[in-house]
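## retry 2 of 3
previous attempt timed out at serialization; input unchanged, resubmitting
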Amino acid sequence: MEHGQETMTIVDENGEEHVCEVIFTFDSEEFGKSYVLYHVLGEEESEDEDVEIHASAFVPSEDNEDGELMPIEDDAEWEMIEEMLNTFLAEEEEDEEQ
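## retry succeeded, writing output
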């Protein structure tokens, strides 16, 4: 997966493929990892319901064409990701108001 990519395909635990919209990616020097925040396209979305956002660490393949998503298991990583997401959403909201 490349930074700036708009969609990616993931395979769930049942072997089913899902196309996901990449919300944003970022690197963390603190943890020495790259992260991707995304949501599955086609999941039920309504005005009353928020989109479920998923986060994973990712390791790009040698050719940068794809890579491997890794689960996030550290509470400190989750806190950092939540801060990054909140900052991103605040900036998006600010851009919409202008």
